[in-house]
Amino acid sequence: MAERSGSIGMLSHWMLANVCAQLHAWQQRGYHLSVAVNLSASDVVDRQLATYLASLLERYRLSPARLSIEVTESAVMQDVDAAMSTLMELNQLGLRIAIDDYGTGYSSLAQIKRLPVDELKIDKSFVLAIDSQKMT
């Protein structure tokens, strides 16, 4: 609903700021945890996302290792070039990047291989009945 109404960017910025604030609070208490956050398709093509995240990491004195970014395969495939640009910038910040729900869309491993991805999370529907499928 937030994506359809055009509010997703505002919601994502609020969520990222609150996650970073919480990570900072935990860090101050001696807990060095990391958090993975899911980004929407709109976030992945936001040209200001990396700048915003860099400012949050600096403001809260967080190591990029404390924050992982997850995007769905379908979000990346909506605009591969824009997503590639954003993901490259996030990768250059030192953030870990995961592609979530791989196998639910139409991308190929060749396309995914071009992206700066640390982790590929294969959707269970992709492998659930793999041993019973006929080879053609």
UniProtKB/TrEMBL annotation:
Q: Output the Pfam families linked to this UniProt entry.
A: EAL
Gene3D superfamilies tied to this protein: EAL domain
Tell me the InterPro entries matching this sequence: Cyclic-di-GMP_PDE-like, EAL_dom, EAL_sf
Q: Which SMART domains match?
A: EAL (SM00052)
What CDD domains does the entry give? EAL
Which residue ranges traverse the bilayer? none
Which named protein is this? EAL domain-containing protein
Q: Which residues form the EAL domain?
A: 1-136
